[in-house]
Fold this sequence. Notes:
Layout: H1 23-33, H2 38-66, H3 71-82
Amino acid sequence: MADDTDFLPGDGPTSGISVTLTVGTLQAIRERVGKRGVSAYLERAAQRQIERDNLDELIADFDKAHGPADPEAVAAKRARLTGGSSGAGAAA
């Protein structure tokens, strides 16, 4: 594999690595996907984590430029999206 080629997460050829997991984590993965599905499961999990990391960075950049979001406005938008009450004063 050419090291100077950039690929997006999920693209490009596969490459083997060694990964160390706790026994409990590996057992839980194998119970979900079987012994032969571990690599695909970890690939999808890594892609989701990269998406979350990128989103966290985007939110941090936005907060730096515009300040943090107003919690009441966020609650109102969440209620509108989910069809529930805003719950601005409700405990989580």
